[in-house]
Each structure stands twice: as structure tokens, then as C-alpha cells.
Amino acid sequence: MNKVEVQTLKRKSVTGAASYFARSILLQAIGFVSALVLSAYFAPEDFGIYGIVITIIGILVFFSDIGLASTLIQKKVQPTLDEYRSVFTVQFVLSLLILLICIGVTATDLLSQKTGVVGNYILLALGISFPLATLKTIPSIMLERELLFSKLVLPQIVEQISFHGILIWLAISGWGAFAYIPAVLVRSVSGVIALYLIKRWKIGFSTNWVALRTLLGFGLKFQLNDFLARIKDQLFYLVLGYILPLKENGYVQWSKNWSMYPYNLTVNNVMSVTFPTFSRLQGHPKELRKAIEKSLFFITLAIFPILCGMVLFISPLLELFPTYAKWQPAIPSFIFFTLSIGWSSISSPLTTALTAIGQINYTLKLMVIWTILTWVLSPLLLIWYGFSGIAAAALLISFSSILSVWYVKRFVDLRVWEQVWRQLFAVLAMAVLGILGGSFWMRSIWWLLLGMGLTAGTYGAVLLLVGKTVVFSQIRSLLAVRTEKYTNTE
Prior knowledge:
The chain is mainly α. The protein has 20 helices and no strands. The chain is globular. The relative contact order is 0.11.
């Protein structure tokens, strides 16, 4: 890429990230409202049932994708139509096999013994969604390679509105966990229709084994990394779901799901944009360093105060709203899971960068470490502290993410501490005020709102006190990239 192409890429990435983030706020708002309603109308057992089924699906997802989609995104040159069709063919066949596995599982009593018949029906609905999801793979890859993230998020909005709208309606109507079944099916169909209205391609089947072998060179390593992630997360939580009583598993699932909202809003959205961007900047180390540092700065700028606020105000919220009092046993788990996300907000951009520049071996090393720690520490803390020990283990394991900083610095001269210390200092000041006023926030809703406003104001004030110049400089640099016009002088 020449200078003009690099600047164009930066401009499209910033514009795409801004629009993608803005639209994603709507997605998270929909999910947030849905979670509030479900927490009120669903019993902990309903969350436990869905958590077990989703965990099974999470494991099966691994076998529906052998890393080919990510390889096409990471590919330096434009993929051919034959490559697109070959990847589509492989993934469609795999999705049909997953559907058959889901049908086979429901034919046994293995799942229903733990979840009841509702678990079987949810699994079938999710199994049907696999072939439908495959239809979205290639159009999504094309939009990502073109950095058209604003278009990519529109089908997700349609899916979220249809899924959560039906889910909320049926939850209020008293369907319990059965509400997930029609919600999943409508979401799958609506997503395919919406995406094909935005991006069409010459759908077809092909088996170009030469192209597939080339793609698999990177894809299998990427998939091995995903395989370890499945063992670390889905398989572990599946085993946990069978060991724990359904109610305790519901507490774990509820606290873990709530803790992920800030991560999904900030880290996931930014990473969706930066992976193809980092990949395209492989040959430009200076620009790559700037891109990674900006990701770290803005992610931590947003997520640190959100995480802190969640930890500070979870107890007052459950205390002031009796409808949610049933979730009080999950408060320690919620706090531990939420704090662990702080480290993830730093390590995720770094592991994404390693994968994007082709250094997936280092990502694999990290995943091996995290998998071993999860399977060793979590059972021990579960025995010692009950179900809350699972979240406590997640918090302890998160500190090993410091290794991701070390690995990335071998290839990119990053200044990680420079990007995060101001946010960390400001959020500590916010936490001190929140803890000191903790007894006041529980007195009434008005005191609670006052506490939220004061702590948020403290974060902003301290941040500007120690880093006003840097904050405004970073914002101006993004605006400049978005608006400047470049001419090719080469």
C-alpha cells in the first residue's frame, strides 16, 4: 500500500468504527432492556437452562468453522469468487452436520434429564440456525474487507430487535425458558434476509482443494486457538452446568452475562473493526503501532468507568428494587466477573493484533496458559468458596493477561502504560468516592442517581485534571483522520 491507500484505510476505519459503535449502542440498549425484563420475569433456573444449551452450541460452533472465514478477512490480496464459494461450501456442509448432531442429542435423555424437555427444543432451534447463519458468512466477510461496518451492523440490529422483542413479549406472557425457541428462529431468518438486501454475492458451491489447502495453512492455527478457547469456556461451563444445581448455575450465568455488557459494547465493537484494519497495516509498523495504541486508549477510556460503576452500584440496585432481590446471592460472582473484564479490555486488542499480523503462535501460547489456569484454579475455588469461586478464579486468571503485552512488544513498540494510566487513576478516584458513599446510595432511588452522577463526574474531572491535553489530542486526531483529504504525491 502507498501513502494514499494507508490514509484512506485509516479514514475508513475511523469512520467505520464511529458509525459501528453508534449503531452498536442501540444493540446493547436493546439487550440491556431485555436483560432487565428477563431478570424480573425469569427464575434463576431459566437462565441456567439457557446457559447450558448455549454452552453446548458454543462447542458445536467450533466444528462449523475451521478458521476459513477469518483467513479470508486476514488475506492480504482480494479473495477470488472460487475461494469464497469453496469456503461457503465447506461451512454449509459442516452446519448441516451440526444440525444432525443437535437432532441426535435431542433424541437422547442426556440433555432433558438436566434441563427438561425445553432444553431439547431450544437446542433444536439453535441447530436450525446454523445453516441459516452460514448464508451470512460470505456477505459479512465482503463487508468487513471493504471496511463497511456501518452496513454490517444493520442486520444485527434487525436480529436484536426481533429476538429480544419476541423474547420480552413471551417472557411477560409467562412462557419461561420456552420463550427462547421462537425468538431464536425469527432472529435467524430475519438476519439472513436483512444481510442479503444489503450485500449480495454470486452464491454457489465449489471444492477448489488447492485454494482450501492454502487458506487452511493459517485457518487451522486460528481454529486451534478457537478450539482452546472452547475448552476454556464452553466445555468448562458445560461441565459446570452438570455439576452445579440448576439455580446456582443460573446465578453464574446471570452474573457472567451481565458483566459482559461493557465488553460487548466497547471491546467487541472496536475489535470487529480493528482486526481487518490491523491485517491491512501489517507492512506499516508505525501506523500499526498508532492504531493499536488508539484502540487501547479509547477502549479503556470508556470501559473502566462503566465497570467501576457496575461494581459500586449492583448492591444498591438489588436492594432498592425488590423484583431483583432474588439475584443477591450472585453479587460476589457479578463483582469478580466484572473486575476481570478490566484486564480483558487490554489483552483483547493485543491478541487481536497478534492474530492480524500473522503471529498466531503467540496467541496460541496465551490460550494454552489461560485454558490450563481455568481448569486448575476454577475447580479448586469452587470447592473452597462454592459457585462464587468460579468468578473469583476468572479474576485471578485475568492478571496473566500481562503476558499479552510482553508478546506484542516483540513485534510492535507499544507504549501500553502511557495509554491507560490516566484512566486507571481516574477510575480509582471514582471507586473511592463510591465506596465512601455506599451507605447513602441505598437510601432511595434519588440517592442512587445522585451517587451515579457524582462518581461519573469524579471520573471525568480527575481524567481531565491529569490528562486533559492527551484526551483532547486523541479526539482531535480521530476527527482529523476522518475529515482530512489526502492526495497521492508519490
